[in-house]
Structures are given as structure tokens and as C-alpha cells.
Amino acid sequence: MTKLEELLKVIKKNKVYIQTHNYPDQDAIASAFGLKILLRNKGVDATICYNGQIDKDNTLEMIEQLGIELFMVDEVKMKPDDEIILVDGQKGNSNMEDFAGKEIACIDHHPKQEVDSYLFYDIRSDVGACSSIIAGYFFENNMEMTVDTATALAYGIKMDTAALSRGVSELDIDMFYYVYKRADAEKLRSFEKCSLRKADLEAYKKAISTLKIQGRLGIANIGADCSEAIIGSISDFLLSLAEVDFTLVYSHRVGGLKFSVRSESKSVDAGKVIKEALKGYGDGGGHGAMAAGFIPNVNTEKEVAEMARLVEERVTRLVTAI
């Protein structure tokens, strides 16, 4: 029995919800879209939903050009007995809102957490992109995919593995080759043209001016009210420095302090570092190569400065101790 067949066995209704993590990125959206097509081909109607905001232009461009339909959670009338399939995240994560329905299944590529409540799960933390897992479902079941589905999955794999250079597995490589042959290369190129806005350059300027390098650790405060997308992008940007193997980037936004971390060191796990660094104040997690975290209820300039200093000290200690 294939993984898709196992999933179909636990679905009891003709309609399900596919939930991504909050502020969904290209991989989360592509995975949800691919799963929706798989389920539709098997007679199950699925609605993609999320919480938060989609604030990166190339993600919005992907959604528009590929005709991906997804909804904020308050736009759908979910009931307690509705069935939810989680993709690219797990129940209990700080970035996975608890919706009204029941989570019957989970497909993810982050480190495994509590799974007892799922009727089905396929969690592979050694895979670089959730899109690769979904592409594998098409391959395993010999199911045709549309050009738009292939394009979405190819873009999801490309973005979450930094063009097959970060956290990549054999499955990512095999599935990227599989979907790229079926994708619209011109659309993929057009998404790349929408990766930055002029206003984003201020955040890059701030990152460069505040950058501190301690050993192989790069730390930057990129200012207030930066989007989820730009925080991650700048973290990737700083990791490209020859002197840096690990990055900590943060921005104060309404409600708290947001962190993004990246690691190119095999001995330093980004997800474990940020989770430990925020213990007692907030929560975080992710992969060995990339992760994020959030501390709520940080409002005044004094609170921001004190909390940022505390996290910087903890991360520095954790990274330099290894």
C-alpha cells in the first residue's frame, strides 16, 4: 500500500481541509496544492486554509499564475468534526494554529513531534522540502500531474532547499528532476523576478549596518515590522558571507520579537539552537539547517533591547560551545 492509499483509508468524509503552517511559504503552499490535486483525483474535495499573512511577492505571483485557491481560516466555516490534514508543519508547533476541526493526518519534513493523535502521518525529517514528499505520491501512484502542479512542486523544492544546496536528500533531487521535466520553466523564471521590493532594501541596509560576527556566528537586527519572508531572506543572505556559518536575524513586530536562524554547520542544529535559546520566553524550531522562533509580549524599546540581548547571548553560547 502506498502512502497516498494509507492516507485515503483514514479520510471518512468527501470534503477535507488542508492546513499549512502560519504565514505559508512556497513549499507549504505547493505541498498543499499538490495534495489537493491528488485528493481530487481520488474523489475527495479539499480546501487549503492557513492563518497569518502571505507577504512575499514571489509567493503571491506563484499563487496567481498557477491559480492556487487558498483561504484564511476565518473565511471558512470549519466545524469541530471537520477533518484536517496538516502539511509542512505539525500540531503543537508555535507556527501551526489550532483550528476548529480535528487533525486526522500530517505530512511534514520537520523533526517528528507528538504523533499519537493522527490517524496517518508521513513525517520525514531527512527530506529538504515537503513538496518532494507530495511529488513522491504522484510518482509512487503513477498519477499524471498538470503543468501547474508540477511547476508549484518544482518551485517549492527549489525554494526550501536553496536550489538543491541546503538540507537536500536523494528524494529532493529525484523529485525535482521528475517535476521539472513537467513544469513551465518560463513561469518558474518569472517568480524569481518578484523576490524583492524596493522597501525591502531598507531591511538589508539595516542588517548590514548592525551585523555582528562572533566566531562563525553572524547576528543582525533588521529593524521593526519586517515581513516573515524578508527576515528569512536576509538570514539566507548573511549566510552567504565567507566568514559566517550560522546566522541569527531578528525583527520587532506587533506582538513580539521574531527570529530567523540558519546553519551551514553539520554540528550545529538550527532548530535545536533557537528552541533552547527561547526557552522560558517563547518558542521556536525547525530543521538542522533553517529554523525560526517568536517571543510574544515584547513591546517597548527597552523590552526589545533586553530580550534581543538575552537571545543573542544564549545563541552565542550555544553555537560557540559546539
Kindly summarize this structure in a few lines:
This protein has eleven helices and twelve strands.
Looking across the biggest beta sheet, what order are the strands in?
Answer: 3-2-1-4-5-6
Compute the number of helices. Answer: 11
Got a strand count?
12
CATH architecture of the largest domain: Alpha-Beta Complex
**Radius of gyration, whole Å:** 19 Å
Helix content: 40-55%
Main sheet summary: 6 strands, parallel
Topology:
Layout: H1 3-10, E1 15-19, H2 26-41, E2 45-50, H3 57-66, E3 70-72, E4 83-87, E5 102-108, E6 120-123, H4 130-140, H5 147-160, H6 170-180, H7 185-192, H8 200-210, E7 212-214, E8 217-224, H9 228-239, E9 246-253, E10 256-263, H10 270-277, E11 283-286, E12 290-296, H11 301-320
Parallel strand pairs: 1-2, 1-4, 2-3, 4-5, 5-6, 8-9
Antiparallel strand pairs: 7-8, 9-10, 10-12, 11-12
Helix pairs in contact: 2-4, 2-5, 3-7, 4-5, 4-6, 5-6, 10-11
Describe the structure in your own words.
This protein is of the alpha/beta class and 322 residues long. It folds into 2 domains: 3-192, inorganic pyrophosphatase (n-terminal core) (Alpha-Beta Complex); 200-320, Diaminopimelate Epimerase, Chain A, domain 1, CATH 3.10.310. It has 11 helices and 12 strands. The strands form 2 sheets. It has a 6-stranded parallel beta sheet with strand order 3-2-1-4-5-6. Helix 2 links the parallel strand 1 and strand 2 (45-50). Helix 4 (130-140) packs antiparallel against helix 5 (147-160). It is globular and about 55 Å long. The relative contact order is 0.11. It comes from Anaerocolumna aminovalerica. Pfam families: DHH, DHHA1. This is DHHA1 domain-containing protein.
